[in-house]
Specification:
The structure holds three protein chains of three kinds. By secondary structure, chain A is α/β, with parallel strands linked by helices. Chain A has a single domain, classed as TIM Barrel (Alpha-Beta Barrel). Chain A is about 40% helix and about 10% strand. In chain A, strands 1-2-3-4-5-6-7-8 form an eight-stranded parallel sheet. In chain A, strand 3, helix 5 and strand 4 form a beta-alpha-beta unit. In chain A, helix 5 runs parallel beside helix 6 and helix 13 packs across helix 14. Chain A is globular and about 55 Å long. Chain B has a single domain, classed as Alpha-Beta Barrel (TIM Barrel), CATH 3.20.20.140. In chain B, helix 4 runs parallel beside helix 5. Chain B is built from 15 helices and eight strands. Chain C is an all-beta fold. Chain C is built from no helices and ten strands. Chain C has a seven-stranded antiparallel sheet, with no helix packed on it. In chain C, strands 6-7-8 form a three-stranded antiparallel sheet, with no helix packed on it. The chains are: A alpha/beta, B alpha/beta, C mainly beta. Chains A and B meet through helix 7, helix 8 and helix 10 of A and helix 6, helix 7, helix 9 and helix 11 of B.
């Protein structure tokens, strides 16, 4: 068996916002051509670190390099930060340009794109998905998180476009959650400490999974697949049990939830590995993960911000977990081909 | 009923760390309020007798429970709301299950979490505390009480802790928190008084979570239904634990003990490892953490069992108890008389045998001290008396 | 309350007379004594249903439960009320059980609430126990 490396969350960013201008209508270029917006590329580049350090190591540029036996899903992570923008109209121009830049600069035979859509305009986003889906460069649709939770009908235009083209959804924190007004808040109250915010980020995944379950989103879109990337996965069994318990108590309040919510997690939800540092010593936790649940976890490096590598994965979780996560990742990236399976054998 | 200990010997003590008394008739608080506050709370007016009283924390027009929040069989035979009759609570719950001690976490107070008037909040809490000291504690030695304070006026709360904290039967302080997180130095006067009086702080949901601009909430957005909200309510517990550690609360108060009630515990393994890892990646992120975060959790926090996660396999059941240090952190609770109560026998039989005694009573004894077993000590209960 | 009369036979389950049909109001779960065992009883029109007093979940007293209907499985955001008066809700966690079969509504749990056969003979209600149908 050929061992593959599949990274379902590799971040790529631009160094200069001016490089986006060629992808914008002329007058929008002039609108964005202002000192503070151009300088805000620093903020957009570093929110994801969720730290208040005064100085950051420069973010190395991503150079796509076709590697046999390797696949990467590229997240234009700076686009995630539109969840903190006030100008929702300008955000669409920005995202359009960023996606174009990404397709021209970050895609190769083994790197495909997580197309970043506007969370503020699902109809516009659906059009974007339909226009880009056929290019073959897109493997997932990336939704920045806003306080409108992912289970509501608000997102249906995006989900419709996704399932039409067998594209899974991926979501990831931008780093301004719990910090910028308008972005989703984190659990509890206001956390001024970025350490607290980073620790509690996975609750965003929990809440959105609960929303997807209790709103019946996977009954509206049975084939929809959603990857919560960058949130880890160790918290999932506790949430699954609790959701099932609440369903048993309150089924007739949400009668469209016809099955225990945990079954939908097993069929429709994916989680990612980063950071491996919180799941060391699998023997202490892996008995909560049965064979079916293990199929839902993929590897993501969080590069260039994380320290997780395939070698670290194998060293800390063991070759069995490592191999499984890579196979899962290949399945995830092949979802877009589900109607016509890829001829390459990754198993 | 008997709970088998590790050795298989039956009938060990059982301390129930979450029992909710309610006040049968709010007019009973009259003697504990000055004329000014009796007028303010409009005691005696007709609508105050409504079940949907305004002295209630959860916004019932925003999140309304699909059924009843209390067990239907817990309504006292002599009338009054569930949890309002101490004798009925004994015959209905304490006696049948051989409960040695019930830790009373008063529910009537929770509504003050909504109050914008700190003086009104303090007056109401004071009246509730004194009423329960006078009525429930003398009724039976199996009742112990957590007096309730809130964060509206921490100095006033600290004064009440010092004034009432030595009352026989008072074993803890229930702290109602709103927007300010538990690690805020706003609560320092309360924590200082708690440590001085050797009383643990108990944090239970007040019902306001996710309702108001001035309450805490789960992450993301607004859950739509009661069940969806309840699924993620545990997050607020995790958030406050995180905040206390990151804010250095336990460096300021090394003796402080926090009892987290009804927040669950099976997510602890995740929180402990994530806190440890992310702090190790950037220790300078906070100047206050001197030890691994999980060490603070193990040393300063305990958690109650209810509602215990339900599993489908014995493998999963065993796995869920693998939280590090859990044998020292877990306390039995029933949440009587609420709807999502856990039958003590059912739950205790699910606790791994090796930790059963600790969960049943030893951990509570350590956290609360011998006064939690007052029914075994036969200490007389003293009242406060009404009227100001 | 007069003692229930009981009919037994060496080879048949026991029939316990638990009272007159008129003793049982509609849509109200009532306790009854069947041969010294407390059971729950629910009248629905001219039919009467009897079930164990112990919820299979955590043992709550089902005779203190509520008579109800339920919402059938539906499309998202739709409610379809049905089975009015044929559902008994546990007084604790409100688990719903079909009083006709003892099955939990929509299979929220595998275990059933034991139900007992009933007969009405000249307005007397008999509960047949010894071999529960649940």
């Amino acid at each position: 068996m050929t061992e593959i490396i599949v990274d379902c969350g590799r971040h790529a960013g631009i160094k200069r916002y001016q490089d986006l201008f060629q992808y914008m209508p002329h007058s929008w270029q002039k609108h964005f051509d202002r000192y503070e917006w151009l300088g805000s590329v620093e903020l957009a580049s570093n929110h994801i670190r969720v730290t208040d350090k005064l100085r950051h190591e420069p973010v190395p540029a991503y150079v796509p390099t076709p590697q046999p036996g390797q696949r990467e899903l590229i997240i234009p992570y700076q686009g995630l930060t539109v969840n903190g923008w006030a100008d929702r109209v300008g955000a669409k121009i920005y995202l359009d340009a960023l996606n174009c830049y990404a397709e021209e600069n970050w895609i190769c035979a083994t790197s495909t794109l997580a197309l970043v859509v506007s969370p503020h305009d699902p109809a516009w986003s659906a059009k974007l998905i339909r226009s880009r889906a056929a290019t073959g460069t897109v493997s997932a649709v990336c939704i920045p998180l806003i306080p409108e939770m992912l289970g509501t009908r608000y997102w249906d235009p995006i989900y419709e476009a996704c399932v039409e083209h067998n594209l899974p959804v991926i979501t990831h924190f931008s780093g301004v959650e719990g910090s910028y007004v308008g972005a989703p808040s984190l659990s509890g109250g206001v956390h001024q400490s970025p350490l607290s915010r980073l620790v509690l980020m996975p609750h965003l995944a929990e809440s959105n999974i609960a929303s997807l379950m209790f709103e019946g989103a996977f009954y509206r879109f049975p084939t929809l697949q959603i990857l919560f990337a960058g949130f880890g996965f160790k918290w999932l069994p506790s949430l699954m049990r609790r959701m099932d318990q609440e369903w048993r108590n309150f089924r007739s309040d949400v009668p469209w939830v016809k099955d225990p919510p945990s079954t939908k997690v097993l069929n429709n939800v994916w989680l990612s590995s980063y950071p491996i540092g919180e799941v060391l010593d699998p023997q202490s936790w892996d008995s909560e993960f049965d064979a079916r649940l293990r199929q839902r976890i993929v590897f993501n490096s969080h590069a260039p911000f994380g320290h997780d590598t395939p070698a670290l994965l194998s060293e800390k979780l063991g070759p069995e977990w490592s191999s499984l996560l890579m196979r899962n990742g290949a399945r995830f990236l092949d979802l877009k081909n589900t109607e016509g399976a890829d001829a390459r054998n990754y198993h | 009923m008997s709970i088998e200990s590790e050795s298989g010997v039956a009938a060990m003590p059982l301390i129930d760390c979450d029992v909710h008394p309610l006040i049968r008739d709010i007019n009973a608080l009259g003697p504990y309020l000055s004329t000014r506050w009796r007028d303010y709370f409009e005691l005696g007016s007709a609508w105050r007798a409504s079940d949907n009283s305004v002295i209630f924390a959860r916004a019932r027009d925003r999140y309304n429970h699909p059924n009843a929040t209390y067990r239907l069989d817990s309504l006292p035979t002599n009338g009054g709301p569930a949890g309002s009759d101490p004798e009925f609570a004994i015959s209905d719950h304490l006696a049948p299950f051989g409960i040695t001690t019930a830790l009373l976490l008063p529910q009537e107070h929770y509504g003050v979490a909504r109050f914008g008037n700190p003086l009104a909040a303090a007056a109401y809490e004071r009246a509730n505390n004194e009423y329960l000291i006078d009525t429930w504690l003398p009724h039976d030695d199996r009742f112990t009480l957590a007096i309730t304070v809130s964060g509206h006026d921490p100095q006033s709360a600290a004064a009440d802790i010092r004034r009432l904290g030595s009352t026989p039967g008072v074993v803890g302080i229930q702290l109602l928190i709103m927007r300010d997180m538990a690690g805020s130095d706003r609560f320092d006067p309360i924590y200082e008084a708690a440590c001085e009086m050797e009383l643990p702080i108990i944090i239970h949901q007040n019902g306001g979570e996710g309702c108001y601009t001035y309450s805490q909430l789960p992450a993301g957005g607004a859950p739509r239904s009661y069940g969806e909200r309840h699924s993620v309510l545990t997050q607020v517990g995790a958030a406050n634990i995180t905040d206390m550690i990151v804010s250095g609360t336990f460096e300021r108060f090394p003796q402080l003990q926090i009892v987290m009630v009804e927040w669950g515990f099976t997510w602890l393994s995740w929180l402990m490892s994530r806190l440890d890892y992310l702090w190790s990646c950037n220790p300078s992120a906070t100047p206050y953490i001197k030890h691994r975060p999980s060490e603070y959790i193990a040393k300063h926090f305990t958690f109650t069992t209810q509602p215990l996660d339900e599993t489908t396999t014995s493998v999963e059941l065993a796995a869920m108890f693998k939280v590090p240090h859990l044998q020292d952190m877990l306390l039995f609770s029933s949440d009587y008389p609420h709807y999502d109560t856990d039958n003590p026998q059912t739950i205790m039989n699910k606790i791994p045998r090796a930790m059963r005694e600790q969960v049943a009573y030893r951990n509570a004894l350590r956290v609360f001290g011998p006064k939690i077993m007052r029914s075994q000590n036969s200490a007389p209960a003293a009242g406060i008396g009404g009227g100001h | 309350m007069p003692a229930t009369t009981t009919e037994t036979s060496p080879t048949q389950p026991t029939a316990h007379n638990i009272g007159k049909l008129a003793d049982f109001p509609e849509r109200k779960v009532m306790p009854a004594d069947a041969g010294g065992r407390t059971i729950g009883v629910l009248r629905h029109g001219e039919e009467i249903f009897a079930f164990s007093n112990r919820c299979p979940h955590q043992g709550a007293p089902m005779c203190r439960g509520q008579a109800a209907g339920t919402m059938l499985p539906s499309e998202p955001d739709e409610y379809h009320f049905a089975m009015d008066g044929l559902v008994v809700k546990c007084p604790w966690h409100a688990y719903e059980f079909n009083v006709q079969t003892g099955e939990s509504v929509c299979g929220i749990m595998r275990a059933k609430l034991p139900v007992y056969k009933t007969e009405i003979r000249d307005e007397d209600v008999f509960v047949i126990m010894g071999r529960a149908q649940g």
